[in-house]
Amino acid sequence: MVPIKILVVEDEQLVADDLRETLEYLGYLVPALAATGEDAIVMVEALQPDLVLMDIRLAGEMDGIEASFKIRSRFNIPVVYLTANADRATLERVKATQPFGYILKPFDEKILSTTIEIALGRYQAEFEIQKALSIAQADKQIAQFQSQLKSQYLYMAAHEFRNPLTTIRLGSEILKHYSNQLPKEKIQKHIDRIQSATDSLTDLLNDILTLGQAESGIIQCNPAPMDVVTFCEEQIETLQLVAGEKYEIQFSVIGNQRIAYLDEKLLWHLLNNLLSNAIKYSPKGGIISLTLSWEEKNICFQVQDQGIGIPKESQAKLFEPFQRARNVANIPGTGLGLAIVKQWVEMHGGTISFESEVCRGTTFVVRLPL
Ligand code: ATP
Ligand code: MG
C-alpha cells in the first residue's frame, strides 16, 4: 500500500521534528517540513501531499490560516490545524477556511492519528460526491445537447419535405382545374414532376429512417467472409452503366488479398453513397476512382473524383445530418448520405476522412478493421 503523504508546516524546528517522528511512527510519510506559509504552498504544489498539518502562527508574512485558504482553493488538499491558538477571533478565521480538523497543542498521539484518519475519510467522501455530481452534470448536458440536436434535425427534415410537397400540391391543383384546357405534353410534364417529387420524398423518408435506425442501433452489423474485389468490380460495373459515358469509373487494388470479414449489405450502401456523391458532384464528368488497399490491420477504400470539391468552411460539419457545402448550387441532395455512411463505418469499428480542394476534386478514405 502507498503510504499517506503528510506535509508538516511548523516554524519551530523542535516541534516539527517531534511531529515528523510521531507521524512516521504512526505509518505516515513526511516528505518535507515547511517553516513558512509561502514555502508550504510551493511544497504542496511540488509534492502533492494527501494532507497538510498546519500551524497557525508561522515565520514569514503569511500565517497558517491564509496559507490554508490558498492551499484549499488552489490544490483542493485537506488541511488540519495543529496549534496553540484557541481564541475566538482565530477560530472564526479558521472556520472560514473549512478545515478538516483542529488539534490543540500539546497534542496527544491518539487524537492526532484519529483526526488525520477522519479528515482523510471525509475528504475521500467529498471527492466521491463531487465526482458523482460532475458525472450527473455532464450526463445532463449531453442529454440536453442531444435533445436540442434532435429538434434541430426534426426542423431540418420538415424543411426538406416542403419543396417536393409544394410541387405535388401545385401540380395536382393545376391538373384538377385545368386538365381540360392543357395540351397533352403539359399534362404529362406535371405528372412527371409529381412522380419525381414523390420519389424524392420516398428517398428522403428512407434516409431519415435509416439514419434513425443506425443511431439507435437497430441496424445490426453482420460481418461474414466475402470476396471484396469481385464485390467492388460488380458495383463499379453497375454504377458505370447508370453514370453514362461522361464518367470513367476506375477500380484498382493494392495487395493480393481478396477476402475480408464485412457486412456485405452495409458495404454496398457505403460505397454506393460515396461513389454516387463522386458522380453527382462532378457535373463536368471525368475520372472517378475506387482504390482498394490492404493494410496490416485494415481494409482501406479510397474514392477519388475530379469534381467541384468542398470549400474549407463547409468541411467541419459535413458528416452531420442535413449539412451541405455552400457550392452545391442546384445539384440535388438532402445532406443525409454522409451522416449515414459515418454511422455505418463506425458500426464496423472503422474511420472515415476526406481531403478536398475546390474545383480540383475530393478524396474520401474509409478504413475498416479486418
Ligand atoms: P444525399 O442525402 O442525397 O446524399 P447530399 O449528397 O447533399 O444528399 P451527403 O452525401 O451527406 O448529402 O453529402 C453532404 C455534402 O457534402 C454534399 O451536399 C456536398 O456539399 C458535399 N459532398 C459530399 N461528397 C462530395 C464530393 N465527392 N464532392 C464535393 N462535395 C461533396
Ligand atoms: Mg450524397
Mean pLDDT: 90
Provide the number of structural domains: 3
CATH architecture of the largest domain: 2-Layer Sandwich
Number of helices: 10
Strand order of the largest sheet: 2-1-3-4-5
- Radius of gyration over all CA atoms, rounded: 35 Å
Question: pLDDT below 50 for ≥5 consecutive residues: which ranges?
Answer: none
Overall 3D shape? elongated
Q: How far apart lie the N and C ends?
A: 43 Å
The fraction of residues assigned to DSSP E strands is 15-25%
The helical percent reads 40-55%
Ligand inventory = adenosine-5'-triphosphate, magnesium ion
User: Biggest sheet: strands, sense, closure?
Assistant: 5 strands, parallel
Q: How many beta strands in the DSSP annotation?
A: 12
Structure class: alpha/beta
Describe the protein's architecture and organization.
- Helix content is 53%, strand content 18%.
- By secondary structure, the chain is an alpha/beta fold.
- The longest helix has 70 residues, at 109-178.
- The structure holds adenosine-5'-triphosphate and magnesium ion.
- Residues 273, 277, 333, 337 line the site of magnesium ion.
Short description:
By secondary structure, this protein is α/β, with parallel strands linked by helices. Helix content is about 55%, strand content about 20%.
Task: Please give a handful of descriptors for the protein shown.
binds magnesium ion, binds adenosine-5'-triphosphate, Heat Shock Protein 90, 5-stranded parallel β-sheet, 370 residues, alpha/beta, Helix Hairpins, Rossmann fold
